[in-house]
Amino acid sequence: MLLKVENLKVEFYTYRGVVHALNGVNFHLDKGEILGLAGETGSGKSVTSLAIQKLLPPNAKIISGKILFDGIDLVELNEDEMRKIRGKRIATIFQDPHTYLNPVFRIEKQFIDVLLAHDPDIKKVELKKEREKLARAKAIEMLKMVSMPAPERILKMFPHELSGGMKQRVLLALAFSLNPDLIIADEATTALDVTIQSQILDIMEKLRRGKNVSILFITHDLGLIAENCQRIAIMYGGRVVEFGDVKKVLTNPLHPYTQGLINALLRIDKDIKPVSIPGTVPDLVNLPLGCPFYSRCAYALDECNKSFPEPVIVDGVRVNCHLFARK
Asked: What are residue 62's DSSP bridge partners?
């Protein structure tokens, strides 16, 4: 097991009050596995990824819980210790490639700066010119690995001269350049058209198999999770409400929220019209005492409004729902 998140709670302090963004998140990720993290906007997916990297904004705080990465509790580490892990052992591919490349520097400088700071083989070389030469050679090698055309020419360009797909390939190459153990792909394909999206996913899978890297794949698209992930975690109201094998969860969803997500999909294999989930996500400032899905659930019981259900294992799938807790 590479990553284990235990009872993680995160709060944001705002002018409206305390936002209970994460309220006891639990999941784990094995070495070489792709885990899909799904749920509506506001369910806590991106906050979970930021908490794992300890990149939360100044008005946010981890209240309790553990983030065990290869046996190390990241919650207990200070900023200097986390810097040795970020980028090198945990890398991130963000949603919008236009935002995460510095517009005033050429691609070459941004690549070389990362490698000079973190690559142990390059850092031990004494002469600066030799270090930069090695870093540039590795940058070209990594760009070739992500099927970037003319990598030598790309290194001389500024980010605005590249298309969205090319920028995402640069970020993908940067993420894999230090041979990390874990890559967090936070909506990494959302801003891309379907053709480029497919190419990026193929490259990610190829690199994952070649380097045995684990990937936390965050997305709204259940179709992408079905095609690319081994397991899935469904988030709602700052909690994981269903967790298990992706085929079991998507073919036989247990939690009413998971059922609602699947029923809202457009189907081409069956003559079934998509049905939206009624209502809206809960207000995380005034979070309900019981199950956060209570007001939108067609199967809600009296106890659902009083307490959050304990986890129950059904055919290897973990689900938090009173419908199964009472059986």
From this structure: 10
Q: What is the residue type of 21?
A: A
Strands 317-319 and 3-14: unpaired
Who contacts 11 (Cβ-Cβ below 8 Å, separation ≥6)? 18, 19, 20, 21, 60, 61, 63
Q: How far is Cα 319 from Cα 120, in angstroms, rounded to an integer?
A: 43
For 22, 140, 238, 255, 301, the CA distances from 307, given in Å and listed in that order, are 16, 55, 15, 16, 11
68-71's contacts with Cβ under 8 Å and 24+ in sequence apart are 68/3, 68/4, 68/5, 68/6, 69/2, 69/3, 69/181, 69/182, 70/2, 70/3, 70/181
What amino acid is encoded at 200 in this protein?
I
Q: Is 325 helix (H, G, I), strand (E, B) or coil?
A: helix
Name the β-bridge partners of 19.
12
Domain ranges of the chain: 3-89+180-325
CA distances from 222 to 233, 246, 263, 294, 298 (A): 11, 10, 11, 23, 22
Q: What CATH architecture is 3-89+180-325?
A: 3-Layer(aba) Sandwich (3.40)
How far is Cα 258 from Cα 28, in angstroms, rounded to an integer? Answer: 19
2 within 8 A of 31, measured Cβ to Cβ: yes
Which ranges constitute the DSSP H helices of 189-320? Answer: 194-211, 222-228, 246-251, 256-263
pLDDT (tens digit per residue) in 256-292: 999 999 988 876 666 777 788 888 888 899 888 889 9
The rounded distance, in Å, linking the Cα atoms of 219 and 207 is 19
Is residue 250's pLDDT more than 90? Answer: yes
Eight-class DSSP state of 94: -
Give the pair of three-digit tokens for residue 319.
């689900």
